[in-house]
């Protein structure tokens, strides 16, 4: 996404923006209705340990099934939820559901180590975020370490001081923090290490470039080595093929998430995968 940083930017309304505004308004009111009608759900994408092939966790990803129009992508409705503040009740709902899901899986003897939930900028700046997350963790009846919150770099940069304090307070609750979409922003890992992240997620664009760009693989490899030397674990996102998998494995990447193993799944399908197929067979390293 294009980002404007400082400078003088001329604002004008093109036909495109007007149409986009109209579409947003329509989506906003539809989204309010959808929440009432329970049209939102969470799908879960398995995260796989590259050494063992075991499913160690899952990322919760919001889905909106509009009866008349099919699936609406979170890339479209999350920004609207952000802008309107609807993300606050939605975010709480997502946290409560994801914690409920991990408890339900464990109760069935299908343990996964953690569930990851995305946290948006608006939520980070919500006054009572810490007591709310604390309360949800208490109600959930799972160890706080079972929850990972994913945040992107752009969320931290508006007010880095505030973000650092808030992340520290979240960590003090016992949960884990993951830096999402790493590499798409402007900051170095050395700088981002000031924030108490346990994990970085290498963005899908870098995974793709491993085999399509000169030095693409070297950049991913160096990122993994640096993250490790800073004491962080590494998840690669959007891994789609065996070739990427092999390269990530030889670079010592810890975990992988992507279509090569599984798309995000409805809870019923996640449950059957954990029951019938909890460990993927890894082809030997080349
Ligand atoms: P994200 O957190 O970076 O999630 C990863 C996205 O990559 C997901 O898109 C996932 O379905 C997609 N993906 C996973 N594996 C592959 C692959 O192998 N190839 C390709 N091409 N894509 C893959 P999705 O589900 O459309 O979500 C988009 C974004 O919406 C997320 O990016 C996240 O920023 C946001 N989002 C989704 N659910 C939530 C939520 O509950 N709360 C908040 N605040 N944001 C959310
Ligand atoms: Mg994420
Ligand atoms: Mg991501
Ligand atoms: Mg993303």
TrEMBL record:
<feature type="domain" description="EAL">
    <location>
        <begin position="24"/>
        <end position="278"/>
    </location>
</feature>
<protein>
    <submittedName>
        <fullName>EAL domain-containing protein</fullName>
    </submittedName>
</protein>
């Amino acid at each position: 996404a294009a980002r404007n940083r400082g400078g003088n930017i001329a604002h004008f309304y093109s036909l495109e923006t007007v149409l986009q505004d109209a579409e947003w308004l329509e989506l906003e009111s539809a989204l309010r209705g959808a929440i009432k009608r329970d049209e939102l759900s969470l799908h879960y994408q398995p995260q796989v340990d590259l050494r063992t092939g075991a499913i160690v966790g899952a990322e919760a990803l919001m889905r909106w099934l509009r009866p008349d129009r099919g699936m609406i992508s979170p890339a479209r409705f999350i920004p609207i939820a952000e802008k309107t503040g609807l993300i606050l009740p939605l975010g709480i709902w997502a946290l409560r559901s994801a914690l409920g899901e991990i408890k339900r899986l464990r109760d069935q003897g299908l343990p996964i180590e953690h569930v990851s939930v995305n946290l948006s900028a608006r939520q980070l700046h919500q006054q009572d975020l810490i007591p709310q997350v604390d309360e949800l963790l208490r109600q959930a009846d799972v160890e706080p370490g079972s929850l990972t919150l994913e945040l992107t770099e752009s969320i931290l940069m508006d007010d880095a001081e505030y973000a650092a304090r808030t992340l520290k307070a979240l960590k003090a609750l016992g949960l884990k923090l993951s830096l999402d979409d790493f590499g798409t922003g402007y900051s170095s890992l050395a700088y981002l290490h000031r924030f108490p992240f346990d994990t970085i997620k290498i963005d899908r664009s870098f995974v793709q470039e491993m085999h399509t760009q000169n030095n693409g693989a070297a950049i991913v490899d160096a990122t993994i080595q640096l993250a490790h030397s800073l004491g962080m674990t590494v998840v690669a996102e959007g891994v789609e093929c065996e070739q990427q998998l092999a390269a990530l494995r030889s670079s010592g990447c810890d975990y992988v998430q992507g279509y090569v193993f599984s798309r995000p799944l409805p809870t019923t399908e996640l449950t059957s995968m954990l029951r019938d197929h909890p460990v993927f067979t890894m082809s030997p390293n080349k």
